Every structure is written in C-alpha cells, then in structure tokens.
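# nightly structure sweep
# worker-07 picked up a monomer target from the shared queue
# config: single-sequence mode, recycle default, output format = structure tokens
# input follows
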Amino acid sequence: MGEDREDVVVYWRPGCPYCMKLRLQLRVVGLPRTEVNIWRDPEAAAYVRSVADGNETVPTVRVGGTALVNPSLRRLLKTVKANAPHTA
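# output follows
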C-alpha cells in the first residue's frame, strides 16, 4: 500500500452505477489507488463539492493535485500518465 496509493484517490458512494463501473475498470487494470466513500467521510464529501460546483458528483478522482469529475477510464489513465506516472 505505500504512499503511491495517495497519488490516485477515487471518491465514490454506494449505489452509484458510474462508481461501480469505474472502480471495476480500475481493478482490472490494476491501478494503485485509495477509494473513499463520501457518505462515510464528511471531509471527502466537502472536497468533492469543492471541485464539482457544489455537487456531490461521483465518481470524482484526484490525481496528484488534479481533480476529475466523473472521468472516463481513458481520461483518468491519461491524467495519471501526465501527473503521477510512477503510479501507472
């Protein structure tokens, strides 16, 4: 688990089909990440609102200092390659 997992943080909530899809895709490609349920972490929910125009839009992914709101796997992997290449 090491600190590299902090480079990619996936914010999600139960019952979200988009979250389930992205989390499954990330498991398949084996991308190291931390996953945070925003319903159990008020600070995480506040972060998501801060980058998603006040909404709790999930999945939201933080790659280093870059936030992606509801990204495709392709966009996420491209951002990881650019901002956290040691993670990929």
